[in-house]
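Hey all, quick one. A colleague (J.T.) asked me to put the FE2/S2 (inorganic) cluster job into the tracker so the inputs and the C-alpha cells live in one place instead of scattered across chat threads. No bug as far as I know, just bookkeeping. Sequence used:
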Amino acid sequence: MRIQKHPILEFKHEKKITFTFQGNELEGYNDEPIAAALVAADIKVLSYSRKLKRPRGFFCAIGKCSSCLMTVNGIPNVRTCVTRLEEGMVVERQ
Ligand code: FES
C-alpha cells in the first residue's frame, strides 16, 4: 500500500532495507518515513493513547501532532511520520 505515482512528488525508493517492528522483521525503503513503511506493511496502529488506550495512527503526517509517537532504537516519543527509516532500526509502540 504505497503511493507509486504522484502528480507533484517523486518517490525514488532506491534501496530496500530491513527493520524490526514489535520483534518482527519488516522491509521498507531508506528514503521513506518510518510510519510510511509501517502503513505499507498494513500496520495502521502506531501507538495507544495514555489514558484510554485508544489506537493512534497517522494524523497530520507532517510532525505537528503526537499521533505517531513511537519508541525507536530505545528512544521514546519519536515522530515516526517525519523520521527517516534506517537499516536495522528497532521500532516499537509506546
Ligand atoms: S502524524 Fe502528526 S506528528 Fe506524526
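Adding what we noticed when we looked at it: The chain is about 5% helix and 30% strand. Strands lie at 16-21, 24-29, 47-48, 55-56, 69-72, 75-79, 90-92.
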